[in-house]
Amino acid sequence: SAANSPSAPAPPRAPASVRVSAPGKINVSLLVGPPRPDGYHGVASVYLAVSLFEEVHATATDTDGVTVTVQSDGALHVPVAGIPLGPDNLAARAAQALAAHTGHPAAVHLHIIKRVPVAGGMGGGSADAAAALVACNALWNTGLSNEELAGIAAGLGADVPFSLLGGAAVGLGVGDRLAPALSETPLHWVLAASDSGLSTPAVYGALDALRAEQQIQVPEPEAADPSILAAVRSGNARDLAAVMSNDLQDAALALAPELAGLLRAGERLGALAGMVSGSGPTIAFLTADTDAAAELETALRAEGHRALAVLGPVPGARLLPAVAG
Ligand code: ATP
């Protein structure tokens, strides 16, 4: 048989197709500074990767160029119609950036399985970019280290390096200067999706306007709140519920007032606390344990909301086993 015949070892062959998953995130703390001259805002963020994963399937193609398809999947029933499929797609930009960095031809098809709400404040597009970097690095045998991939990731968007890293981390700068935070005890959350997408720049703009109106001056944030970090490290949900906060929440509520009712509903139905995730409009409710999260998921769904129990921290972007066949 072929298995017994003497032959030279097979040369290492790049796979024809690879699958990678990458998590969405919530910010359990988000301090936002004043607008900088470059238009960005300095932040101090405590990121938590949660068990809502994007998947990117990368397949080698014969012709140069990146093509993209997107499929909606999962309990939050994410509408995907508005996502760009051309060169503006964040996964396509990631593949192009890796090709430019390595000199490898960008001949690839990317199929995105979308579970993270689009423009939802959970970094879903960033997760697609992180997944595409890991996928193309494997598909093309380009062998970049995690550090090198993180360098490319930072050029793609503030949340892309965190989706590569996963776990829990403090993010400074625009969120891309990351320091991992150790956390061994998972926290249990329920995500509630909203139909109103919020544009991240619009929410930052609304925050600047609110602060100007109220004559509030804030310093450039230089560190994450130690009490929030301590609660994440210990996995103590009650401690975290008392201190978690998001400077963008009032701005998101000003742009999407219906979120206030959703926040109240979750707290009435048993959440320890609820908060807008990042720039919103997704709401993250913290619960005491798995059972409490399952109960809150059921109760929110009974009231007609799209809700999903998740936990975090979870790992960052990683290769999934090849599918047989
Ligand atoms: P963040 O929290 O990282 O600021 P977000 O989670 O609020 O962002 P995303 O879903 O990551 O929002 O993307 C915002 C916009 O980016 C979308 O409205 C869409 O037009 C564009 N976009 C480009 N590529 C993608 C992608 N792969 N998935 C989703 N949106 C994408």
UniProtKB/TrEMBL annotation:
Pathway: Isoprenoid biosynthesis; isopentenyl diphosphate biosynthesis via DXP pathway; isopentenyl diphosphate from 1-deoxy-D-xylulose 5-phosphate: step 3/6. It is an enzyme of class 2 (transferase). Residues 89-167 form the GHMP kinase N-terminal domain. GO terms for molecular function: 4-(cytidine 5'-diphospho)-2-C-methyl-D-erythritol kinase activity; ATP binding. It comes from the Bacteria. GO terms for biological process: isopentenyl diphosphate biosynthetic process, methylerythritol 4-phosphate pathway; terpenoid biosynthetic process. Its EC number is 2.7.1.148. This is 4-diphosphocytidyl-2-C-methyl-D-erythritol kinase. Belongs to the GHMP kinase family. IspE subfamily. Catalyzes the phosphorylation of the position 2 hydroxy group of 4-diphosphocytidyl-2C-methyl-D-erythritol. The lineage of its organism: Bacteria, Bacillati, Actinomycetota, Actinomycetes, Micrococcales. It catalyses: 4-CDP-2-C-methyl-D-erythritol + ATP = 4-CDP-2-C-methyl-D-erythritol 2-phosphate + ADP + H(+). ATP binds at P117, V118, A119, G120, G121, M122, G123, G124, G125, S126, A127. Residues 229-304 form the GHMP kinase C-terminal domain. Keywords: ATP-binding, Isoprene biosynthesis, Kinase, Nucleotide-binding, Transferase. The active site is at K25, D159. It comes from Arthrobacter jiangjiafuii.
